[in-house]
Amino acid sequence: MNTGISRYEPDTLAVDDLHTHFRVPKASGWRKETLRAVNGVSFTLTRGTTLGLVGESGCGKSTLARTLIGLIPATRGKIRLKDRPLRGKRRTSEERRAMQIVFQDPYASLDPRLTVHEVIAEPLRINRCYSRIRVDEAMESVGLTPALGSRKPTDLSGGQRQRVAIARALALEPEILILDEAVSALDVSIQAQVLNLLNRLQRQLELTYLFISHNISVIRYVSDRVAVMYLGRIVEIGSCEQILDRPHHPYTQSLLSAIPLPDPRVRHKRARIILEGELPNPIAPPSGCVFRTRCFKVREECAITVPELEPQASADHLAACFFAEERPVGVLQPGIQTVSNLATAGEVL
User: Fold this and answer.
1) 187-209 average pLDDT score
2) Can you spell out the DSSP letters for 251-310?
3) Half-sphere exposure of 33 (CA within 13 A, CB side)
4) Cα–Cα distance measured from residue 125 to residue 102, given in angstroms and rounded to the nearest whole number
5) DSSP line for 202-247
6) In the chain, N or C: fewer CB atoms in 10 Å?
7) Statement to judge: residues 295 and 218 lie in one domain
8) Which domain covers residue 55, as residue numbers?
9) Does 146 map to a domain?
10) Percent of the chain scoring above 90 in pLDDT
11) Is the same domain home to 200 and 250?
12) Residue 124: CATH number of its domain
């Protein structure tokens, strides 16, 4: 079984066959059933790099982030930081400090009763290492003046609040920062400022990012590697150029074909892949390949065997598809509409 994990160094986060399941009540009756939110995810994070994680709403991205940070216990699987196993909520203070998270909504993630200074100081007080100078330095590192420390989060703009959230996460000097849709609630101009800030902080502090986003353009801008997630599984992973310029999995191809292109000379040359149906129920996922109910490459064997991540054009570009080399060829099939014939993966874009 190829898990997509390469040899990892001591300063790398390694996730191996991670599962996070929930027991939820059945729609009828008193019994419970299992919801597989994260279902066998494997990847590595190398120091100073960014892994972008993309996928539809409900595919398990945020659950994966909360499992890594220790807010939700994993059902099974391994998470290793610096070659040390991390155990759910039973983590040492040092292990908790090494990995911090920035949530999507700055309006909901900050306590409105506290001042900005108190918000940033809270994790320092919990870890018994509070210093006013340290709080001021954290604010200055994200472009905020310490004078704002006496104000409440409700007095700030959305961009300023998200900078406060980033400063709070950085106060404990983590090695890994998980950014769960950290810029999606911001205006486009503010998004650019925050993204540039994150890039600068990564270079200065040698931070490692797991960047979760729906926005492919943002993922392309910030990521070194990209993982595509569907119904609790990673279906394709590789370098940013491999995934976004030469996708192999049909789900990745459909995501990228949905990106609007302003140039009509390019627009009419690419296939438009339209997925039919909704995301399957994670309580009762399809047998075999989880994407087969919406896939334009589906064959009989797709319903029988679960495809594993296998190397494609290169050893570090993996896709979980039996027919990854096949491309849309300009005929209407269930779930696909094409406007031109394609020969190579690059032409999908």
Assistant:
1) 93
2) HHHHHHHTS--S-HHHHTTS-B----SPPPPTTSPPSSSTTGGG-TT--GGGGTSPPPPE
3) 10
4) 19
5) HHHHT-EEEEE-S-HHHHHHH-SEEEEEETTEEEEEEEHHHHHHS-
6) N
7) no
8) 48-69+91-223
9) yes
10) 61
11) no
12) 3.40.50.300
